[in-house]
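If you are new to this repository, start here. Below is one unmodified record pulled from the training split, so you can see the exact layout before writing a loader.
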Amino acid sequence: MQSAVRSLAVTLAPLFRRIHDADVGVIEDQIAIARVPAPTGGESARAEWMARRLKTAGLRDVDIDDAGNVIAHGGSPGGSSPIVLCAHLDTVFESRELVHVRRDGARLHAPGISDNARGLATMAALADLVDRPILFAATTGEEGHGDLRGARHLFDTAAAGAHAAIALDGPGDERIVTSALGCRRYHIVFRGPGGHSWGRYGAPNAIHAVAALVTRLTGYAAYDRTRTALTVSRIAGGSTINAIPAEAWIEVDVRSTSDAELVRIDQHVRRAARDAGDEENARRRNDTTPLAVTLTLIGERPGGEVSSDHDVVIAAAEATRAVGRTPEFAVASTDANIPMSRGIPAIAIGGGGAGGETHTPAEWFENREGTRGIARAALLLAALTGTR
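And here is the target side for that same chain:
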């Protein structure tokens, strides 16, 4: 595989020149994509844009599936075991208004301009440039509460028998995600009778219970046995300053490289929620109704890993070196989680250039030798399709 990639880097020199010549158009696509709002669960307008763009590239059988994914096929019709190239449509931002993209020198500023307008623009560029048997998929529900909905459907249907999968996620030309970060997400609600802050003082307080729960949850870090993160990410409750809160809730994001650790944390979260409710109820007045606690698992992303000596990883590393970069292997949660968890060799890479302030309104992208990222992806696809 290593020698094959080196040979391809020489034979594909004309393709790399085409990538360089197309660079201005790629940035124009990236801006156009970023302007179309695509909150998780509301990706349809951007999906339609991508479907039109992939048709323009000459791909076959362009369609939008039942999960809202844009599916298209490149190259000549072939076997039933495709190479899958995917990039997610959605952003973390809830607005459905047209997005303003601002230029500041070499930088573009806009929510989602890097994640994942860059990945989608790179996919469109590869659709123009790479005539190989590839299944292209622009997926829904990768961010937030989407729980990888689009990728799950994709690998249940059109890509169920995939030979390998590559997810284009954000900018960059060095990182190669070879391990899928497992994730569980919880919505926990405390509900009680509430009441006047003086006249009903002694009724159980839902916010007090949430505060006790947060203390219990954050204490888990002391017991971390592997690379694990537990984040209390959202919290709300109460109705007015002079009332005992009748309801309060939190959302918790848990991530780990270890499935066993995720199971242990799940037990800890459930026990902590029960204990926090019991503690607050133990203090309540006898003539008041106790708090009830409801815990809902609102997201569960599976973990997985592709071996460092697998052809997909070797080809990605060699392609990275071939464009003058040093491969950096990483752990992350991306669309690649789904194929990895199902035994399909998969990685995630960036689409070139540099970015920052991801998942904030100040997000930016700078086209620093962005063609290297596109060339790396093109070389990787050529190597993988050429080995079959």
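Two things worth knowing about this chain: The chain has two domains: 2-181+303-386, 182-301. The chain has a mean pLDDT of 93.
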